[in-house]
C-alpha cells in the first residue's frame, strides 16, 4: 500500500541553530544546514507526506514510544545546551494514524511500543533541528520515535525498524521518509575546554573509528557494520546508544541490506563528536 521513499542518518547538532545567529559562529554549520535542505528537497520530489524521526534526544526508561500528536507547536529551549538553542519557535502537524500503525506493528513483532496521540508530549531537538531546515513550509507531517533507550537491546530496536517499514508498506496509504537523528561517535568535549573543540573530535581514536564506519558504508560492507554496531555504540559513546541507527538499519534489512549510501554532508567534527548527513537507497 504505502511506500518508504527515503532513509537517512542525519546530524542535529545545536550549533546549526547557533550558525544562524549573528556572532563569532555565524555560518559555521552552513554545510550541515544545506545537507538538511537537500534531504528536504528530495523528500518533496519523492512525494513524501510524513517524516518519521528516530530521535536520540527522547529518553525513555521502559518500552518504546511514538509521539504522534495531531499538532505540535511551541517555543523550545534546550535544557541540555540552553546557550545554543533558545526560544526556538516551531509548529508542525503530526500523523496520529501512522503513529498507531507503527506502534501496533512493532508490538505485534514482539517489541512493546506505545503510540501517544492524545498527549502533551512535546518534540525534542533531535526532531526540531532537522525539521527547521527540511520542513520550513510545514509540508511534511511529523512523527517522533523515542531513540535514547537506556535499558534496551539494539536487536529490539532493529526489530522495531523492520516493523516500521512493514507498517508503512502493508498498512499505510502514503509515502514516508525515516531519519535516524543522531551522531556517530558522541563523546562531548570536557567541560571547560568545549569551545576549543567546536570543530574538533575529542580523541583521534573516535575519529578513526567513525571514518572506518563511513568507509564500510561506502564499500557496502553492511554485514560487517551491523555486526560491529553494538561494540561501536559502547566504545565510541554512540548517541542514544545508537538505537536510532539500529532502527534505521532494521528498516533497511540489517545485514542483508544491499543498497548504497550517498554522503550528502561529509563527515565533520562538532564539540568533540562525529557527524554526518547520509542518505541510504531504499
CATH class type: Alpha Beta
The named CATH superfamily: LigB-like
Report on the biggest sheet.
8 strands, mixed
Number of continuous helical runs = 8
GO molecular function: 3,4-dihydroxyphenylacetate 2,3-dioxygenase activity; ferrous iron binding
Keywords: Dioxygenase, Oxidoreductase
Pfam families: LigB
InterPro entries: HPCD, Xdiol_dOase_suB
Protein traits:
HPCD; 3,4-dihydroxyphenylacetate 2,3-dioxygenase activity; alpha/beta; two-stranded antiparallel ribbon; dioxygenase; 3,4-dihydroxyphenylacetate 2,3-dioxygenase; ferrous iron binding; Protocatechuate 4,5-dioxygenase, Chain B; 8 helices
Furnish the topology, listing elements before pairings.
Blueprint: E1 3-10, H1 15-18, H2 30-45, E2 50-60, E3 64-67, E4 71-76, E5 88-93, H3 96-108, E6 113-116, H4 125-134, E7 141-149, H5 154-171, E8 175-181, H6 204-219, H7 222-235, H8 243-252, E9 261-270, E10 273-280
Parallel strand pairs: 1-8, 2-7, 2-8, 3-6
Antiparallel strand pairs: 1-10, 3-7, 4-5, 9-10
Helix pairs in contact: 3-5, 5-8, 6-7
